[in-house]
Design brief:
Chain lengths: 360, 261
């Protein structure tokens, strides 16, 4: 497994839970409950996010490329859980071990087409966000023959990996449970499992309905119009913003902190708008963002904001350490929501390059 | 033994030899693959480790081509730390003890800096230079640097208690912090390169650290650092001082602590 073996990884801070209704819903979507989803079944919108985002239909990219994006981004993020899961998926789907190794070692030197190499480099740039990717970063991809829409799909798959990487890293989900590709039952049932795992092809362009163009972070969702991800993301964001175990204010603060850290101005503007709508004064928002604390920020919020900040360019062990600090201050349901919301904020902010591309 | 038996014997021998060669080649290949895997994993581990000391793109440039021309102006916060009176101490202590004491000190300071999102760019004798915001954009770099400075102080107090228990002299640390634009890049020759920052910001941070010898403070920050600082830090404004290379006297603030509640 290479470099990720050396990545420090804490003991998992969550136990899997049972929720028959949520399990039924996931089974009807995937044929089985994804192992990682079992840790989040007690939060309705997170279960919904799994159903919506775990297997995104692909329009223009090759399904193989989407797997490679997941591998490269997970490796770059040092998410041992997603990396192991993606590696196992690729083996099940028939990627030769040697090809996976070449990708891991250096995808720039792997036997890929120039277009695929450009796509992987762009996906990594989107995920890294040092600095936040912009339309200019997509130029090599466009020069290699990708359309704007295909480039946006690369952004979507990179951001989706960013979401699942953080969702798995913060609670330190145990990577070994995803190391299943060489188990006897996986070898025996490989064709069947592969048919379930393969990234589905989208049959047609999906336009957002007028009512789907409104809502929190609409600019980011609308930038993806035409892709099947757009209505799914709209639904996930709307669900996340329903009243729940976390205050609307904390939700806004998490997005605002990630946006500030990653210098995503449109996301910070939208999060600030939501916070003001919740009754925070602009000065209070600014103080909370400048110092991750302030008179208007309670101790749990302060802890969550520190976690949100750490999640941007994370080091797994430190992030897991901060996550444990949050876990000690809140209920399990709140904790699940905090990490999912933090992961979602990271993914949404990284979609800002799609907003840039949509303007072109 | 007839010719037919002889040819069967020779054939069997050849087949056995071919199998042996194939097995040997297979074993060699597996051994080679293991060595390659080991080397690759080691390289990846090194690359991952180095990403804590330089931006990922810079590390990748070095790994891929042996160098990196990437340089950029960045807003960074620079922290200089230096032991007060160390020269005198180094003349009194046995060299081995001195190196042990110094290594213990550097280990603790590096940890305190790393825990606050900084990285040690270089050790300079008994001093060090740490950077905040050099590897990734960091809007909280001023808070991080001052928190790191306080953590360094606490770590040094604990270390001094250990040194005193062992009958060794204790250490005193002066820290200067300044924030501004600096040029960040890989600098050096083929024999020795480092990712570092250069420019007036760095020079002023160093000069401010030297002021801790003259002013009643162990941690000094400039107005540029104070500007972005959490108001819960307790600061004392100190009289402006002339420093070499800066036209106007420089106002500094002594950091006294942090009110966590």
């Amino acid at each position: 497994m290479g470099a990720l073996d050396a990545v420090e990884w804490e003991v998992c801070s969550l136990e899997p839970v049972r929720n028959p209704a949520a399990e039924r819903m996931l089974r009807s979507t995937f044929g089985a409950v994804p192992p990682s989803a079992r840790y989040f079944l007690d939060c309705r919108w997170v279960t919904g996010a799994y159903a919506a985002l775990a297997t995104l239909p692909v329009h223009q990219l090759s399904p193989d490329l989407t797997e490679m994006i997941a591998l490269v981004v997970s490796q770059d993020n040092s998410c041992r859980y997603c990396y192991t899961a993606t590696r196992a998926t690729m083996k099940i789907l028939g990627f030769p071990e040697a090809r996976i190794r070449r990708l891991e070692e250096n995808f720039l030197g792997a036997d890929l087409s120039p277009a695929d190499t450009a796509a992987l480099a762009f996906a990594r740039c989107v995920s890294r966000a040092t600095p936040l990717a912009c339309a200019a970063d997509a130029q090599p991809l466009l020069a290699a023959g990708y359309s704007i829409s295909a480039a946006k799909e690369v952004v979507v798959f990179a951001a989706n990996s960013v979401f699942f990487n953080r969702l798995s890293t913060m609670p330190a989900l145990p990577p070994h449970e995803m190391d299943f590709a060489d188990r006897w039952w996986a070898r025996l049932l490989r064709p069947l499992i592969a048919s379930r795992m393969r990234t589905p092809r989208a049959r047609q362009s999906v336009s957002l309905q007028p009512e789907q163009r409104e809502g929190v972070f609409a600019e980011f969702v609308n930038a993806l119009d035409g892709l099947s991800t757009a209505p799914r993301l709209r639904a996930v964001l709307d669900d996340a913003w329903q009243p729940s175990t976390l205050s609307q204010r904390l939700k806004g603060l998490v997005f605002a902190v990630v946006a500030r850290g990653i210098t995503c101005t449109p996301a910070e503007r939208e999060a600030t708008r939501l916070l003001v709508a919740e009754g925070m004064a602009i000065g209070e928002v600014e103080q909370a963002l400048a110092h991750l604390s302030g008179p208007a920020v309670d101790p749990l919020e302060q802890s969550v904001l520190t976690l949100a900040r750490e999640s941007i360019w994370y080091r797994p062990a430190q992030l897991q350490h901060h996550a444990r600090a949050v876990r000690a201050q809140c209920t399990r349901e709140q904790f699940v929501e905090v990490i999912a919301l933090t992961a979602l904020a990271n993914a949404v902010c990284r979609l800002s390059v799609a907003v840039d591309l949509a303007r072109q | 033994m007839g010719p037919a038996e002889l040819s069967i014997g020779v054939g069997a021998l050849l087949v056995a030899a071919a199998i042996a060669v194939a097995l040997r080649v297979g074993a060699d290949r597996r051994r080679l693959r293991r060595h390659l895997d080991g080397a690759t994993a080691e390289l990846q581990r090194l690359q991952t480790s180095f990403q804590h000391f330089a931006p990922t793109a810079v590390v990748e440039g070095i790994v891929a081509g042996g160098g990196s021309a990437e340089a950029a102006r960045r807003e960074v916060t620079v922290l200089f730390g230096d032991l007060v009176g160390f020269t005198h101490l180094s003349e009194r202590l046995d060299p081995e003890v001195l190196v042990t004491v110094l290594n213990g000190y550097f280990a603790r300071m590096s940890r305190a800096i790393g825990e606050h999102r900084g990285h040690v760019a270089k050790f300079i004798g008994d001093g060090l230079m740490a950077l905040f915001g050099a590897i990734e954009p960091n809007p909280w770099q001023a808070n991080d640097a001052v928190h790191a400075a306080l953590a360094m102080q606490h770590a040094l107090a604990a270390y001094n208690a250990e040194l005193a228990d062992r009958g060794l002299p204790t250490l005193q640390l002066g820290i200067g912090i300044h924030r501004g634009i600096a040029i960040a890049g890989v600098i050096g020759s083929h024999a020795l390169v480092e990712f570092t920052v250069i420019g007036r910001t760095v020079n002023l941070a160093s000069r401010v650290e030297r002021l801790t010898r003259e002013l009643p403070a162990d941690i000094l920050i400039t107005a540029a650092v104070r500007e972005g600082l959490d108001p819960r830090f307790t600061l004392d404004e100190l009289p402006a001082q002339s420093v070499r290379g800066v036209a106007d006297p420089v106002v500094t603030y002594a950091v006294r602590g942090f009110r966590s509640s």
